[in-house]
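Hey,

The postdoc asked me to send both predictions to you directly instead of through the lab channel. I've kept everything plain text so nothing gets mangled by the mail client. Protein one:
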Amino acid sequence: MTSRASHGSAGEESDSRAGGPLSRDAPGSHAAAAADDAPTDRAVPSAAAAPPERVRVTAPRAGSPAASPRPVSRNAADAPTSDIAGVYVRSLIRSQLRLGVVFAVGFAAATALFVLAIAFVPAFDTTFVLGVPVSWLLLGVGVYPLAITVAALYLRAASRNEARYRSLTEDE
């Protein structure tokens, strides 16, 4: 990769390591070597066609105050318009949280029971399918239908909660 890049006007070449412009006619520069090989009837690009000037973007200083600790919504549709709307939103959030916790605990319990059943039924270890013990197949493949079923049930219940919320807010 070349350490010099063309920035600025058509008559200058800047050195990205030094940050300063180099003359096209400076001895030892790539531009001087290229100028000898370049045809003389080549048109010089206009200033409008030159790439924009580079801007250095840095992180904010450690001591500077933040603009806002939390973004504020400027959209009126996002904010509750009345006290009752705020109560509805908080109720929806609580019900969705409760639903998520119930399904997470239920999934963990069902998975634990699944593993315990495999551990305490010795017939799963002695039965083979295609040379693989059934207990390994159940652990490796059998958990996925359980996870998909729990996810589908959660999605259905969460959609039902949101539909109830929408029906309450549309009645206002």
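Protein two:
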Amino acid sequence: MDRLLASRDTWKRFENMSETIAETTELTSQYATQVTGDLERNLKEQDRLSAEIEALQAQLAALRHDHTVLVNIQQALGIPAAPEPVAAAPAPRGKQDEKPATATRKRAGVKRATKAPVASSAAPTAPTLVNLVRDHLAAQTEPRSAAEVTTALEQQHPERNIKTTVVRTTLEGLVARNQAHRAKQGSSVFYTVPQNAEPATQE
């Protein structure tokens, strides 16, 4: 009888162990499935964000290239660059705002009585690309191509970013204003400055 009871207890413990192992296996399988799904979603999200970043970087590079071209054209046309807007800093608030109004009126009276200093003469501006191109042509005894003018100006003004395309645009602008002549020799185009041409204005 005792052996029978012991066998039953052993069998019950075995059944409980089997159920625990089965539950553990099922739980592990669920976790594995969830982790695998999370990894797939994570990789897909990384791919999506990487594609968006690459697209934004390409757009930024294109905008920077367009900005450089527009600045060169602006310099070629002699258009002064517009100053970038500067946000005014807010006035600090504190004990100064609590001063009596009489003190404010006194300071205002002193300011009105003080004469504004005479503005000093503006600093000389650098010559525009139009003037540089025309002056260079005027100093030559033979016709010059846009590439030759660009090479000479790059040597004379290494601090400036001078491009052949911008110089060619500038030369064509001088031709349109009768401040330069254009002559074609084969597939090449050469430019000269006429003797009676009006001087280019500083813009």
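Summary for protein two, as requested: Helices lie at 2-76, 101-113, 129-138, 146-156, 164-176.

Thanks,
C.
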